[in-house]
Amino acid sequence: MTLKLRTKIVDLLKKGEVGTEVVAKGWVRTRRGNKNVAFIALNDGSTIHNIQIVADVAVFGDDFLKEVGTGACIKVVGTLVESPGAQQPVEVQAKSIELYGKADPASYPLQKKGHSLEFLREIAHLRPRTNTFSAVLRIRHAMAFAIHKYFNDKGFVYIHTPIITGSDAEGAGQLFKVTTLDINNPPRKENGKVDFSEDFFGKEAKLTVSGQLEGELAALALSEVYTFGPTFRAENSNTPRHLAEFWMIEPEVAFYDIEDNMDLAEDFLKYLIRYALEHCKDDLEFLNKMWDKELLERLNSVASTSFERLTYTKAVEILEKADIKWEFPVFWGADLHSEHERYLVEKHFKKPVILTDYPKEIKAFYMKLNDDAKTVKAMDVLFPKIGEIIGGSQREENHEAITKRINELEIPMEELWWYIETRKFGTAPHSGFGLGFERLLLFVTGMGNIRDVIPFPRTPNSCEF
Ligand code: ATP
Ligand code: MN
Q1: Could you tell me if 108 and 137 are in contact, meaning their C-beta atoms sit under 8 angstroms apart?
Q2: Are residues 156 and 177 in contact, defined by beta-carbon separation less than 8 angstroms?
Q3: Percent of the residues in the chain that have a pLDDT greater than 70, as a whole number
């Protein structure tokens, strides 16, 4: 059986055989021409480059060709010929054109001229048809694929951790609730509080903020695992680096200490950047030209320099000495903000930085306590333009130590009984981290706003599409 498939435009441009008949399908980016001939730039999303379709006005008629304008979708049958123009190696001399769908130029929102990224966010249903977004989406795909490839090649097992969670252990207050109760008239207990025992799960449920805790359970059996799934945070931070729904990659490895964990994080990030440089060349060159003239330089530089590693305490000393008026004050014990992180990376060290040994008060309960009893074996990887791209730690594997910490923080123990049991039965030193997928994409694409590296962003007051 012969499939009546089109040839992808990427293949026509790269390895199409001149002189053969080809079928191309796609969306018209632009149409120009004169009274004899129309030149149609056609794109099907397989590459940043368009193929030029040459259509004789005498054959197709002026009225028909007018409908084949920006945004229309067409099928073209024609001959692949060498192009006289310098823009492209080959073009298609059209024999027949079928108009699948026209796009009325008076109302089609995407015009030839460039649109602002803010405007494009309002038409996220159409923005994949722009050069910029199709490039970002191809890179997004390539990075997702490379992440699985990296871990698969190393023998890690991909674990699907739950999206609905019953435990409130991490980041209270940032969780979206999941319920089937009638919120206008919920069942109530005698004390007036909502009776969640009548809810779908018989208890309160939320959307997960991280797959880590369940990832740890799997690591303490399969040794090397990773998760790659959606996570949700109801934090009301309207920044260019935060989404309410984002994707996270969380490797978790038994027998790794914090040093091994840092080595993995650095190797992993460099692998992904090199993968992008190798496999997304055309798209990166386009983004470099359009949005960020230093993108390729930055990617090459990070892929080839070793990351600076230092303690939180040393970093605070550096920040205190810096002659800068910080928006958020710096002192030992303070949480570092993007302005501090970026100063260390962009101004002081001029390369990625891994900070370790944070005060226990500003980090999560599961991080392993250092001998000083003040700091924990945390590690944050800080990147130029982004700030924190990875947060991780060596985990507290000691049963006594972790229950003590859970009690100190007044986390309800009964919600975490299963987690604590792994410390009771065959515990092992282990470590892991979380990489925000969209933060990685911000870095790799050079885009400035996290809303522009996910197809349909969810942020405070915005849940369209
Ligand atoms: P930040 O301090 O930047 O808000 P965090 O410390 O809350 O981040 P973690 O809980 O350590 O983040 O999550 C691990 C990783 O997930 C972060 O390093 C970051 O790459 C990513 N991440 C965290 N929150 C968000 C968010 N709201 N949107 C997109 N990515 C996020
Ligand atoms: Mn963090």
Answers
A1: no
A2: no
A3: 98
Q: Which atom of ligand 1 is nearest to the CA of 235?
A: 27
Q: How are strands ordered across the β-sheet holding 164-165? A: 164-165, 205-207, 177-178
Distance CA 389, CA 269 (A): 10
Q: Give the integer Cα–Cα distance in Å for 12 and 10.
A: 6
Measured CA to CA in angstroms, residue 411 lies from 169, 294, 403, 414, 416 at distances of 7, 46, 10, 9, 9
CB 66 within 8 A of CB 32: no
Question: Three-state SS for 201?
Answer: coil
- The 10s digit of each residue's pLDDT in 247-280 is 999 999 999 999 999 999 999 999 999 999 999 9
Ligand 2 centre to CA of 392 (Å) is 7
Q: Mind listing the pLDDT tens digit for each residue in 139-148? A: 999 999 999 9
Position 441, amino acid = L
**Does residue 439 have its Cβ closer than 6 Å to ligand 1?**
yes
β-partners of residue 253 are 224, 431
The finding on whether 434 has its CB within 6 A of some atom of ligand 1 is yes
Domains of the chain, CATH where assigned:
9-101 (2.40.50.140), 127-174+209-452 (3.30.930.10)
Tokens of 372: 């000083």
Q: Answer whether 391 contacts ligand 1 (Cβ < 6 A).
A: yes
- How far CA 449 is from CA of 139, 425, 454, in Å, comes to 16, 45, 10
Per-position DSSP letters for 346-412, written without gaps between them: IIIISS-EEEEEEEGGGS-TTBPBPTTSSEEEEEEEEETTTEEEEEEEEB---HHHHHHHHHHTT--
The Cα–Cα gap between 465 and 456 comes to 7
Specify whether the CB–CB gap between 279 and 453 falls below 8 A: no
**Edge-to-edge strand list for the sheet holding 387-394:** 157-158, 224-232, 245-254, 430-436, 387-394, 375-383, 353-359, 308-311
Among the atoms of ligand 1, which is closest to the Cα of residue 388? 18
Dmax over Cα atoms in the chain, in whole Å? Answer: 85
Q: Tell me the pTM.
A: 0.96
Which one of 207, 439, 440, 453 would you pick to mutate in the ligand 1 pocket, going by the greatest count of ligand atoms within 8 A of its CB?
Answer: 439
Taking CA atoms, 451 is separated from 47, 137, 221, in Å, by 22, 12, 37
